[in-house]
């Protein structure tokens, strides 16, 4: 029988709705989308899409670690951008985090993201 474990960490922003930061099941970790909230303050980081993307990765790393995984084990990401015109800026930051391990990815422009974030990223990783 498949086991499912809810993953939660104070090192990333808490869920702002009825969902978990991540779910671990059958050797996979399914991370909910992270937005650029600094978990220490509960506020958005200042700056544009580059600074927001950096914070999103800090949050994703914290959730991955809480679930016993890491960026090296990520197999799929989805990037949501408020403005596809900022793709190049986001992509430059993204590329620093996935230098040698390049997971599958989809990138879409969303009409609006939670709390008017400029970027949100979710991922699936091996545990």
Short description:
This protein has two helices and eight strands; from the N terminus they run βββββαβαββ.
N-to-C order of helices and strands: EEEEEHEHEE
Unreliable spans: none
* Architecture (CATH level 2) name: 2-Layer Sandwich
What would you give as the CATH superfamily? RutC-like
Question: Describe it for me?
Answer:
There is one protein chain. By secondary structure, the chain is α+β, with helices and mostly antiparallel strands. It has one domain (4-126): RutC-like (60s Ribosomal Protein L30, Chain: A, 2-Layer Sandwich), CATH 3.30.1330. 23% of the residues lie in helices and 32% in strands. Helix 1 packs parallel to helix 2 (87-97). The longest helix has 18 residues, at 49-66. It is globular. The model has no long low-confidence stretch (mean pLDDT 96).
């Amino acid at each position: 029988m498949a086991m499912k474990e809810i993953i939660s960490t104070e090192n990333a922003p808490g869920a702002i709705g009825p969902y978990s930061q991540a779910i671990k099941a059958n050797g996979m970790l399914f991370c909910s989308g992270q937005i650029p909230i600094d978990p220490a303050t509960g506020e958005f980081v200042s700056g544009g899409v580059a600074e927001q993307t950096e914070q999103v990765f800090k949050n994703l790393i914290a959730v991955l670690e809480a679930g016993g995984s890491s960026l090296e084990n990520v197999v799929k990401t989805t990037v949501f951008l408020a403005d596809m015109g900022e793709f190049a800026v986001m992509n430059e930051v993204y590329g620093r985090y996935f230098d040698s391990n390049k997971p599958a990815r989809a990138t879409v422009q969303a009409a609006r993201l939670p709390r008017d974030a400029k970027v949100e990223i979710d991922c699936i990783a091996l545990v």
